[in-house]
């Protein structure tokens, strides 16, 4: 695989992760547990959509065929999306939402810290910009984990269950295939192995403060990076893409 | 003179308000990074505050409309992401205007950039009664760039412009 092709795919993957999670959080608009939290979740969603736009626009430039951010967002089907399965999992209760967010934000926080020194100017700029936003997202979800875990008996078992349910979805974030290997070899992206221990230490710190017991290892969820998704993505896209599917030539 | 024309462009953009916080201009906010002018084109380089900030599109349209009305050649907007925008680029004038408008300005040089569990700057004085007895209500306020605080003295809930 040549570097350019790998770079295109990598940008789309980062964009897909951000977009699908951004959409999931947008589903909570006006349904948050209380006003401030409703606003927090949708603000995070907005940041993720901003990050998506940066990555899709960059992907379009790399590809050089005139595809725009909207083409990538609205004119692809499930198998073409290469987001991790983590981000398409349902919002569930508030504990499920913050557990999913914590794993995502802690991973991306560590990735962006490394990626901001990439020799690829676009990736470096994207990572430096997104890191500032992701730091806030991470703090938000980590504080909630502690508050719920170290809260009432009911909030404790609910967040413990939520974390147990989602924990096995983390593996996929660290997977590597030809796309990653090509870019690691070219020195454009960090090897996720280099910050895996830091990722685990950050999470362990949060779990300890939250009095969460050791998380259960379930089956190792995988497939998203190959376009093999859980059934949820098939329900997300028809809603997300409903306008362009109904009026294909519509313009904003 | 080219330099004069460029200076006049800066002066004109200075009058374009931030759509969310109309008391400060896009120049004072620090999102205008460069102004270039040729015979046929006016190129304005901007950087977003937050990557998903919906106000950016409004800035762009306002800049294009205002400059073209003043007779400048085809106005184009170039968006750059590096170096990433920081609240340190907001002018002193802008900080004072924020305060007068009822938004607590970013506390320069305070340590609210801690990673896990930092609870924000030590003191965010209430823009209404100036009391320092305030507390963080939510990391995310009315827009992505602000946090919500509440004043224990006068009871007012106010926005604090977060440091990034």
Key attributes of the depicted protein:
heterodimer; A: 252 residues; mainly alpha; 11 helices; 0% strand; B: 164 residues; alpha/beta; GMP Synthetase, Chain A, domain 3; 2 domains; four-stranded mixed β-sheet; three-stranded mixed β-sheet; 4 helices; 25% helix
Topology record:
The complex is a heterodimer of chains A (252) and B (164).
Chain A: H1 3-26, H2 35-63, H3 69-74, H4 85-88, H5 94-115, H6 121-149, H7 153-166, H8 178-185, H9 196-209, H10 233-240, H11 242-246
Helix pairs in contact in A: 1-2, 1-8, 2-6, 5-6, 5-7, 5-9, 6-9
Chain B: H1 2-13, H2 26-29, E1 32-37, E2 42-46, H3 55-69, E3 75-79, H4 92-101, E4 103-104, E5 134-138, E6 146-151, E7 157-161
Task: Describe, in plain words, how this protein is organized in 3D.
Chain A is globular and about 55 Å long. Chain A has eleven helices and no strands. The N and C termini of chain A lie far apart (36 Å). Chain A is an all-alpha fold. By secondary structure, chain B is of the alpha/beta class. Chain B has two domains: 2-85, Fe-S cluster assembly (FSCA) (GMP Synthetase, Chain A, domain 3, 2-Layer Sandwich); 88-161, no CATH class. Chain B contains four helices and seven strands. Chain B has helices at 2-13, 26-29, 55-69, 92-101, and strands at residues 32-37, 42-46, 75-79, 103-104, 134-138, 146-151, 157-161. In chain B, the strands form two sheets. A four-stranded mixed beta sheet of chain B has the order 4-7-6-5. Chain B has a three-stranded mixed beta sheet with strand order 1-2-3. The radius of gyration of chain B is 18 Å and the shape is elongated. The mean pLDDT of chain B is 87. Chains A and B meet through helix 2, helix 6 and helix 9 of A and loops of B.
Brief synopsis:
The complex is a heterodimer of chains A (252) and B (164). Chain A has 252 residues and is mostly helical.
């Amino acid at each position: 695989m040549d570097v350019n092709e790998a770079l295109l795919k990598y940008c789309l993957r980062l964009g897909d992760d951000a977009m699908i999670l951004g959409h999931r959080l947008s589903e909570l608009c006006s349904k948050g547990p209380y006003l401030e939290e409703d606003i927090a979740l949708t603000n995070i969603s907005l940041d993720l959509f901003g990050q998506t736009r940066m990555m899709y626009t960059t992907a379009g430039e790399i590809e050089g065929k005139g595809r725009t951010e909207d083409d990538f967002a609205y004119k692809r089907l499930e198998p073409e999306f290469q987001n991790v399965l983590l981000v398409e999992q349902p919002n569930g209760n508030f504990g499920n939402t913050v557990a999913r967010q914590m794993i995502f934000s802690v991973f991306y926080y560590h990735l962006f810290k490394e990626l901001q020194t990439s020799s690829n100017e676009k990736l470096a700029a994207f990572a430096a910009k997104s890191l500032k936003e992701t730091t806030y997202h991470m703090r938000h979800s980590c504080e909630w984990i502690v508050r719920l875990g170290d809260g009432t008996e009911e909030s404790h078992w609910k967040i413990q269950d939520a974390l147990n349910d989602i924990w096995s979805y983390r593996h996929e974030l660290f997977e590597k295939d030809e796309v990653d290997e090509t870019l690691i070899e070219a020195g454009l992206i960090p090897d996720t192995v280099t910050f895996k221990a830091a990722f685990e230490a950050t999470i362990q710190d949060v779990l300890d403060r939250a009095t969460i017991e050791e998380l259960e290892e379930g089956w190792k969820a995988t497939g998203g990076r190959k376009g093999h998704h859980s059934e949820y993505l098939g329900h997300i896209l028809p809603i997300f893409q409903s306008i362009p599917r109904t009026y294909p030539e519509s313009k904003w | 003179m080219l330099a004069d024309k460029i200076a006049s462009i800066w002066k004109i953009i200075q009058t374009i308000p931030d759509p969310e916080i109309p008391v400060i201009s896009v120049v004072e906010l620090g999102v205008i990074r460069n102004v270039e002018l040729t015979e046929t084109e006016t190129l304005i380089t901007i950087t977003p505050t937050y990557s998903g900030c919906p106000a950016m599109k409004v800035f762009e349209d306002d800049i294009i409309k205002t400059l073209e009305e003043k007779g400048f050649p085809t106005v184009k907007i170039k968006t750059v992401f590096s170096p990433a925008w920081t609240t340190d680029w907001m002018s002193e004038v802008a900080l004072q205007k924020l305060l007068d408008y009822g938004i607590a300005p970013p506390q320069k040089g305070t340590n609210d950039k801690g990673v896990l569990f930092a609870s924000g700057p030590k003191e965010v004085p209430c823009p209404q009664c100036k009391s320092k007895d305030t507390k963080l209500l939510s990391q995310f306020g009315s827009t992505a760039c602000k946090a919500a605080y509440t004043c224990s003295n006068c009871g007012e809930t106010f926005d604090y412009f977060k440091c990034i």
